[in-house]
Design a protein that fits this description.
The complex is a heterotetramer, with 2 copies of chain A and 2 copies of chain B. By secondary structure, chain A is α+β, with helices and mostly antiparallel strands. Chain A is built from 15 helices and 18 strands. Chain A has 3 domains: 4-103, Rossmann fold (3-Layer(aba) Sandwich); 132-201, ATP-grasp fold, A domain (Dna Ligase, domain 1); 207-444, 2-Layer Sandwich (D-amino Acid Aminotransferase, Chain A, domain 1), CATH 3.30.470.20. Helix content of chain A is 34%, strand content 24%. In chain A, the strands form 4 sheets. An 8-stranded antiparallel sheet of chain A has the order 13-12-9-10-11-14-17-16, sandwiched between helices. The N and C termini of chain A lie far apart (53 Å). The mean pLDDT of chain A is 95. Chain B folds into 2 domains: 22-62, no CATH class; 89-165, Beta Barrel (OB fold (Dihydrolipoamide Acetyltransferase, E2P)), CATH 2.40.50. Chain B is built from 3 helices and 11 strands; from the N terminus they run E-H-E-E-H-H-E-E-E-E-E-E-E-E. Chain B has helices spanning 22-35, 70-73, 81-85, and strands at 3-4, 39-43, 49-52, 92-94, 99-102, 118-119, 124-130, 133-138, 143-148, 155-156, 161-165. By secondary structure, chain B is α+β, with helices and mostly antiparallel strands. Classes of the chains: A alpha+beta, B alpha+beta. Chains in contact: A-B, A-C, A-D, B-C, B-D, C-D. At the B-D interface, helix 1, strand 2, helix 2, helix 3 and strand 10 of B face helix 1, strand 2, strand 3, helix 2 and helix 3 of D.
Chain lengths: 451, 166, 451, 166
């Protein structure tokens, strides 16, 4: 097994990885910017190396400094965490070329999934359901109607060259297609100098549901069920739960099997997450994340695996040692991303933690690098901790979340704890009926648009 | 160099000195004398200073404790300091038990005492019903009933101040 | 379900029960002595009632004050926790007679198990294995040899009227029996004025292994596996684990079934723990605890049940809703009882918590009522918290325990955290080969006696 | 009465100093006697001092950072304050990158500078090897090399003080 792992990250995820390494008997090297000299991940690591000034581009994104730190500390492997350099294929390449093990997927898979068009094509070929579309521009109204009929209504007419909503029209019927085709094409021509449009299925109220996969280097691949991450604000996940309240056991097993088969087809290694939109019983591929995700703890809670430990083991070359049949799901888990933000306006507010008391007891897990006296620096992401609760049922889990949020004390600065407490009073959340648009409407105080 | 924790964890605070600075104490004591203060506090590390004069019994300190509390975590009001303060009153009559208090020997009867009454030591002020038994609460000293703090029929806890005798 | 539960306890267990109630939507009433006005269980309860001055006999053991508190706060039920009045049959009777529900076994079972001789007789009749003995005094040497031959060597010769080791002899052979019979009898005569002696199997290196049972009021009974509590100091448990590293799956299932059958035979309700000594593949009944135990969390961690929730549900009259076949054990759990004691001498040292930071992350649970600024009062038990870790295997669990102990910060006072850190370096603990005597020898620095 | 949390969570407890060894207690007791004070509080870890005369009141000890640290939790030494202090030195030459430092242009050659040498701005003091590239570290001002703080061939981190120019 590795003797020493360098963790190329900061905050709670650096601490998370340190904990896993420590429990495996692996020494850890923390890297940090000058702004993070007193950070928990630095305090708890076996060794630390200051790699640069506060701006991330000069420190946590500074591949050369990180590799130098690995060299001078004699690390065997580098765990990139999430964000920063975690999905940078060039970094993964450099790591391997300098003789360290990159704890994550291969550089080729990172590169493939980083190219959104190539990724979609590869996944489609591997059997992952993608959104139905006209497979290229439709030349005229009649072709548009044929394509729309085949896809099923509603459809969306989109500019091939487009973006930002221009040249984009939702058509609920053949008549709509005929009415909107020319308008969309004209708008596209005006906006992008290219009138070509294509047609795709239109999802009105989708959920974001993703499948966690895990593969060793010897052909063993499992999926670890799904996570529902539909509660998003400005495309940022805010709260995640596993399993999704929207899909049933057989849907879960079916999409899981599709994911595993696809991963086997592309020869995937280590952890990964296949993200889907889900509506009316169908999954539609969005993208694949070739790294550990922020929300991985909800999966850990329901399947009893330590995902970081598994990543390290698999990167070392160890076999999984279990099969899909051995993976069992127990109960329900929810994660709240606590941020240093105003709980009403979500304006980031870094500051000093005057006092800190984490909730405890049965079914409560806190992944946070905060401590009393810590000053949250203004340079990085505003997430300061994750509260994860597990319960035998979703209802028990919600009750436990309410209890744990009530016990969580962070004074001296604003956090989003009160936001989550309010959220627990919302029927759409409690009943699990929310879609990806719901939270945005809830926060802005607007009604959801017509379905 | 890479900082090995065997040699180089960074302290966030100056190292503890186990020696009391006798000179500092003497200096502060002298300042007390000189200024007529009753108290000087002094800190280091982002500085702290506090001076006081005259006697204060209990000082509730804002935000000293990070303990969770059901009230605080719900943003509810969190102070009944005036009520607590009375426990230090020399003429406070504290409840000797948990129960329900009665001002009069029976429903409809006149109360044992009213505000303004003079009472003698041993004189019954209230009854407290606990486990279906009526227990008299008696005055411990002579004086005037200055305040009665709990309503007839109210539940009372151990040590709760029921009345003030002055 | 109950609307309001009064918790007749303090410290971590009062908080534990409060958390369970809160998660069930049940309001809580904390009772407290004047010394505990600022205690966490008081701060977090919905209501609190001061029931007396610091000495426990005047507050937490004051049944009348507690019942008055229940009356004035309109509680429906009383949970006694452990210690204090939890195994007091008279208190349970008073609770029921005043119209409250006692959350625990029936008064009759509490009374039965409180009488150690009657308990042993009842358990024997119910099929629980008890230590083999001569069933009464042996009149002479020959009878002693016959009894000892039947029991098997070594045996212990004990004074019927005895105690404290006087008149007590261990015999490894027939010759020993003949040699020691007269000496023991003479010592007994001299010490107690009664020379009658009896003979029992002598356990030299037993472990303490106990079985957790849970029964509803409708005849459903399950066992929740075993706990190994052999690490004891002066007959006080110090660290507990589940499952025991000393017994295997079939032994576990066998003793569990015996326990369930016995509980069915005596018509037991709610939770209970049957404590055994275990040596050389055999269990010997010690006593039964008719309450929740300090070490219940290790059972919760491996079987995924919330025992306090189950106690409350069952006391309300709800059926278990699951059978023995539904109970599955996952991984391994260890609990450390952190006390406010000198980590070398175990001298209790109450004091003020200057700073407090609990460990977090995967598989770590802290049940503690401490907080920064809290003053541990000198009047009560010195236990200030429990650190519980869960892992997929015993080894993972030990590694996680080491990690979590290293993260646990309690300053301003002495705690036994350093003691547990030292314990983790001891092969007898790491290998799970300790018996009930081992910790005493380890702490006193003496070698274990000859086996 | 039963305290509903809408009205009555309690403020934190008064406290006094604790957890001191016998000699310290004796010393403080003697100081009390000597100065005529009624109270001395005394802090550790992030220094604190409080003396009082006459009244007894509650006061907080400023919160000490409770952050876990690998060093502290293992009871290992926890101070390299002197090293840290140098970063504020006006003539400190800080490492611009992570790497391995060399005092000389090549093995066996004479070092770029020695303690006591006069240097000019821009003059090369060291090389730092990072990713197999040698990067010169130059003096930023004229002066005398007062101290060289890292050994030849040692790993250095960003911002680490390499030398002092005075």
């Amino acid at each position: 097994m590795f003797e020493k792992v360098l963790i190329a990250n900061r905050g709670e995820i650096a601490l998370r990885i340190e904990r896993a390494c420590r429990e495996m008997g692996i020494a850890t090297v923390a890297v940090h910017s000058t702004a993070d000299a007193d950070a928990m991940h630095v305090r708890l690591a076996d060794e630390s190396v200051c790699i640069g000034p506060p701006p991330a581009r000069d420190s946590y994104l500074n591949a050369q400094a990180i590799l130098s730190a690995a060299a001078i500390s004699n690390a065997d492997a580098i765990h990139p965490g999430y964000g920063f350099l975690s999905e940078n294929a060039d970094f993964a390449t450099m790591v391997e070329e300098h003789g360290f093990t990159f704890i994550g997927p291969t550089r080729d898979h990172i590169r493939l999934m980083g190219d959104k068009i190539a990724a979609k094509q590869a996944m489609k070929e591997a059997g992952i359901p993608c959104i139905e579309g006209s497979d290229g521009p439709v030349p005229d109204e009649d072709a548009a109607v044929v394509a729309a009929d085949k896809i099923g209504y509603p459809v969306i007419i989109k500019a091939v060259a487009g973006g930002g909503g221009r040249g984009m029209k939702i058509a609920h019927s053949r008549d709509d297609v005929r009415s909107f085709y020319k308008i969309a094409s004209a708008e596209a021509e005006a906006a992008f100098g290219n009138g070509a449009v294509y047609i795709e299925r239109c999802l009105l109220n989708p959920r974001h549901i993703e499948i966690q996969v895990l593969a060793d280097n010897h052909g063993a691949i499992v999926h670890l069920g799904d996570r529902d991450c539909s509660l998003q604000r400005r495309h940022q996940k805010v709260l995640e739960e596993a399993p999704s309240p929207a899909i049933n056991q057989s849907e879960r097993a079916a999409i899981g099997k599709i994911a595993v088969d696809a991963m086997r087809a592309i020869g995937y290694h280590n952890v990964g997450t296949i993200e889907f939109l889900y509506e009316a019983g169908k999954f539609y591929f969005i993208e694949m994340n070739t790294r550990l995700q922020v929300e991985h703890p909800v999966t850990e809670m329901i399947c009893g695996l330590d995902l970081v430990r598994e990543m390290v083991r698999v990167a070392w070359g160890s076999p999984l040692g279990y099969t899909q049949e051995d993976i069992r799901f127990h109960g329900h888990a929810i994660e709240c991303r606590i941020t240093a933000e105003d709980p009403l306006t979500f304006q980031p507010k870094p500051g000093r933690v005057a006092s800190y008391h984490a909730p405890g007891g049965l079914g409560v897990r806190v992944d946070s690098a905060l401590y009393a006296g810590y000053r949250v620096p203004p340079y990085y992401d505003s997430m300061i901790g994750k509260l994860i609760v597990h319960g035998a049922s979703r209802n028990e889990c919600l009750m436990r979340l309410r209890r744990a949020l009530g016990e969580y004390v962070i004074t001296g600065m604003d956090t989003t704890i009160p936001f989550y407490q309010r959220l627990l009073a919302e029927p759409a959340f409690v009943n699990g009926t929310y879609d990806v648009h719901w939270l945005g409407h809830y926060i802005s105080g607007t009604k959801p648009g017509p379905g | 160099m890479a900082k090995k924790k065997t040699s180089a964890p960074k302290p966030s605070a100056p190292k503890a000195s186990s020696d009391v600075d006798g000179d500092l104490v003497r200096k502060l004591a002298k300042l007390l004398e000189e200024t007529g203060l009753t108290e000087i506090e002094y800190g280091r590390d982002s500085w702290y200073m506090r001076v006081a004069k005259g006697s204060r019994i209990a000082a509730p300190i804002p935000a000293v404790s990070p303990a969770p509390s059901a009230g605080a975590s719900r943003g509810e009001p969190a102070a009944d300091a005036p009520e607590d303060d009375l426990s230090g009153h020399p003429g406070a009559i504290a409840s000797p038990m948990v129960g329900v208090i009665y001002h009069a020997p029976e429903p409809g009867a006149a109360p044992f005492v009213r505000v303004g009454d003079q009472v003698k030591p041993g004189q019954t002020l209230f009854l407290i019903e606990a486990m279906k038994v009526m227990n008299p609460v008696a005055a411990t000293a002579a004086g005037r009933v200055a305040r009665i703090l709990v309503a007839n029929g109210a539940p009372v806890e151990y040590g709760e101040v029921l009345a003030l005798i002055e």
